[in-house]
Amino acid sequence: MNARAGTLVLIALGAFVTTLDNTIVAAGAPSIARDLALGLGALQWVALGYMLPFAGLLLVAGALVDRWGRRRTLPAALFAFGAGAAVGGLAGSVGLLVAARAVQGAAAAFLVPALLSLLRTNLDARGRTLGAAVWTACLAAALALGPALGGMLSASLGWGWIFFVNLPFVAAMLALLPVATRAGETAAATRAPPLGAMAAVTACLVLLTAALVRPWPGSELPSLAAAAVLGAGFALRERRAADRLVPAALTGNAVFLGALVVQLLWGLGISGVFFFTPLLHQEFLGLGPVGAGLPLVLVAVAVMAATPLVAPSVTHFGPHRTVAGGLAVVGAGLLALAAVNHIPELLPRVPGMVLIGAGSAFTVPLTSHALDVVAERNSGAASGLLTASRELSSALGVALIGAVLTAVRGLRLDAGTAPGAALAGGYTAGLLTAAGLTLAGALLAVRVLRERRPVSSSPHDKRAVP
Fold first, then answer.
1. Residue 265 main-chain phi, psi, to 5 deg
2. Which GO MF terms does the UniProt record name (predicted)?
């Protein structure tokens, strides 16, 4: 297997397994709670144990990948991820299980930016578009298949296999590393990493994520306030420091910053809507717990079906028009769902879901083009920022769409509407909000993602821009 193919397979496996590990636990939660005698408050930490270190460490991890190099970071992160999975599967107490999940989350925080940065270091411009499309398709597949796979493994083999299933992926990725990582890679020649800045930004991101997912009742405002103080201190330090954690070449790059904002708008809408979709399918359509999530597989199938068309679209229309068109199609899908949401049937929703999936595939140049316009030496930090933006937009989206849904649902209930119909009314309001955010992202993409020559072209590039 050549380096290009090895890189693409490695990226695909990494995208799938790191996302799967965040979704597969949900279906096995009842079995874990029963075997370990956990209440709801303790059970949520099985998920938060992975989520908080993953979201909190992404920015730091991306910067350290550039300092340490991928040849050092990837094997260490893979071994830690596998060790956490093995311990989690064997855990007999909630403390050990949450600790194992935290190890996995921290390892994933290094894995994701290190793998994404391979798009910049190992592939030419056309290959980066393909790699980003593969990454997105695997994310979609893991999001759709995770709950179903978790349910099957828990029912047939026991909940421990929810974690053991990670091990074959880790073994395959370790086998691919010699092919996908370049022998001549060296770490950046910099001073010791700024530990104070690393601690501040990590604590800021952990507190912000915790405020959004609300693990402790009444902790939202103190967590947000502390996150704001730490974030402001980090930003002030970065402006004045000679050795910045986030390179000035990234914060001063208008195209890269624009990509972050577009990604934020997209994630705000889509993540919130999809979080509440299974609830709507159960409460309004009358589907069971397993069947409620299965329609989302249509979205993943549409993403994968449209993926081969992404690279030709970038070639013919440019990344800015391709992303804007994809976001417009996603917005149209959300509006199509809103138009039929009053009907308590599944079939009328299928066209909207297919549009959302197909449109999402065409947003992948958002990642590849954002990496195109940064120097190779900053690819790890850029990948960490892109991933952190995606994770935070997901949490913010759940909070935003949840607030809209709850407010409208409450008004409908006060007016005497039946509970299921009231929920549907709130969900429609959430769909319209998401569509507005997504269409705003489409308009912004046309402006900020216009083709630019990369700051520093990869040795593999045959031309500057796809």
1. -65, -40
2. transmembrane transporter activity
Say how far apart CA 406 and CA 429 lie, in whole Å: 10
In this structure, the dihedral spanned by the alpha carbons of residues 72, 74, 80 and 82, taken in order and rounded to 10 degrees, is -140
DSSP letter string, 309-356: GHHHHHHHHHHHHHHHHHHHHHHHHHHHHHHHTTS--SGGGHHHHHHH
Which amino acid belongs to residue 301? V
**What whole-number distance in Å separates Cα of residue 324 and Cα of residue 326?**
5
**Euclidean distance between CA atoms 112 and 383, whole angstroms:** 8
Give the rounded percent of residues in the chain with a pLDDT score beyond 70. Answer: 89
| Alpha-carbon span 391 to 379, nearest angstrom | 18
Are both 307 and 455 inside the same structural domain? yes
Same domain membership, residue 157 and residue 289: no
Number of domains in the chain: 3
> Residue 446 is part of which domain span?
247-466
188 in a structural domain: no
DSSP secondary structure string, 244-275? -SS-HHHHT-HHHHHHHHHHHHHHHHHHHHHH
> Helix 125-156 to helix 350-361 angle, to the nearest 10 degrees?
130
Cβ of 190: how many Cβ atoms within 10 Å?
12
Burial class of 231 by CB neighbour count within 10 A (0 to 12, 13 to 18, 19+): middle
C-alpha distances in Å from residue 30, one per residue of 89, 128, 133? 15, 40, 34
Contact 113, 61 (CB under 8 A): yes
Query: Is residue 227 domain-shared with residue 286, that is, in the same domain?
Result: no
Same domain, residue pair 148 and 211: no
Closest CA to 105 of 51, 58, 62: 51
Rounded distance between C-alpha atoms, residue 184 and residue 195, angstroms:
28
The answer to whether 360 touches 137, Cβ cutoff 8 Å, is: no
Q: What pLDDT digit, counting tens, does each position of 161-190 carry?
A: 889 999 999 999 999 988 877 644 555 555
Would you say 350 and 324 are in contact if contact means Cβ atoms under 8 Å apart? no
d(CA 132, CA 130): 5
Q: Alpha-carbon distance 464 to 452, whole Å?
A: 8
| 252 lies in some domain | yes
SS3 165: coil
- Over residues 94-148, the pLDDT tens digits come to 889 989 999 998 999 999 888 888 887 787 777 777 888 888 788 877 877 777 7
CA 253 – CA 73 distance, rounded (Å): 26
Residues 10, 100 within the same domain = yes
